[in-house]
Design brief:
The protein has helices at residues 2-26, 30-39, 53-59, 62-89, 100-122, 135-145, 147-164, 167-194, 203-223, 225-233. By secondary structure, it is an all-alpha fold.
């Protein structure tokens, strides 16, 4: 914990700069951008009013939706990779490259970058702070932070979607699973195997990252509050093979 305190005390300005960069990048909401380019309208005035992939798919078309997905995914990847590079090149006395402690710093910093990219997507400074729910950007963050974490949550999403055909419900359940998924990966695949090494991961790392992941999941669930109301009333739209209402 002392090393983490040292890291934060000496490199807080780098972390703030990274968070600002991630937020600005996240604020480029491509659902708004591509809808304006294709349809000359604001996606937030169409359909559900959400500036995200699903609403673009329903209201604008497949190609703009795919482009929205790709670019929203890429902006989160760029943010998290920037965090990875930052930690890779920042020297900390007594902390070797590839060590468990260095990996812990990398995890923390990547999660911070991913979170601020998601916040930027949901509350974009360029579009009056009204954006999307951040599902795609959150998925991209998980994919770069740890592929095992990503596959765990993605698997949950796909199973729910196969049975329900409702993207919002699948996203909500996936958000609920983010905390448990992170715990499973960091505890059983990182902490436990490392106990036999000279530099094991810390339990603090497991709990901090789990709390962080759970917080991101809760944020995603809160952003789906209107969807939750419609799901409870049985009014939420489904995605069919023809991309029409069920």
């Amino acid at each position: 914990m002392q090393s983490l305190t040292f890291y934060l005390q000496n490199y807080w300005w780098c972390i703030i700069a990274l968070a600002a960069f991630s937020y600005i990048l996240g604020s480029i909401n491509f659902a708004v951008v591509f809808t304006r380019l294709v349809k000359k309208q604001d996606i937030r005035t169409l359909g559900s009013g959400n500036a995200g992939f699903t609403n673009v798919l329903r209201c604008v078309g497949v190609f703009p939706a795919v482009m929205t997905f790709v670019f929203d995914f890429l902006k989160a990847i760029i943010s998290v990779l920037a965090a990875r590079l930052l930690v890779t090149f920042l020297p900390v006395a007594g902390v070797a490259q590839g060590s468990a402690l260095k990996t812990e710093y990398m995890y923390y910093t990547m999660l911070i970058a991913g979170l601020f990219c998601v916040i930027g997507h949901s509350f974009p400074v360029f579009f009056n702070f009204k954006g999307g729910k951040g599902v795609v950007t959150t998925a991209a963050m998980m994919a770069v932070v740890d592929w095992r974490f990503f596959l765990f949550v993605l698997g949950t999403f796909l199973v729910v979607f196969v049975f329900s055909r409702i993207i919002s419900l699948s996203s909500i359940i996936a958000g609920i699973m983010m905390g448990p998924a992170n715990f499973a990966v960091t505890y059983f695949f990182m902490y436990k195997p490392s106990l036999e090494t000279a530099t094991p991961y810390s339990l603090t790392f497991v709990w901090l990252t789990t709390a962080f992941a759970a917080g991101v999941g809760i944020f995603a669930i809160i952003k789906h509050k209107d969807n939750i109301k419609r799901i409870l009333k049985g009014e939420e739209k489904k995605i069919t093979a023809k991309k029409k209402e069920a």
